[in-house]
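Q: Here's a chain of 129 amino acids. Please give me its 3D structure as tokens.
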Amino acid sequence: MVWIPSEDCVSLKPVTIGDMIQTKRNILKVVAAHFDPMGLFAPVLLKGKCLIQRLWSKGLDWDTEIPLELENEWNEIKGDLENISNVKIPRCVTFGSDKTVNKYSLVCFVMLRKRHIPQQFTCVKQEAK
């Protein structure tokens, strides 16, 4: 994932796929190359992960070409992955017609662990206008 400061948006780094042999190893390599910790691009990345799951369930070896019935599906996913870096999501998302920020919130989670003290967990929320 990359932040584009000039546009104040996030996107995924482009990954070169090229014309590689369509094997379980190469498909996993391409799908895993996209880092999306917030799940913003999950609708596209999830398709690739589901395809990998089906390849595992078929018991294919790492370097065996994928079956023809899955080749068309992979080509569609591959096209989406090649273009995913063109998708840009605004970093600041607001709802409604008023685009001004009225208040800020800070949420802090703290977990305390010591050897002879029971585990403590605290959640603090502070709001300011």
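Q: Can you summarize the key feature?
A: The radius of gyration is 21 Å.
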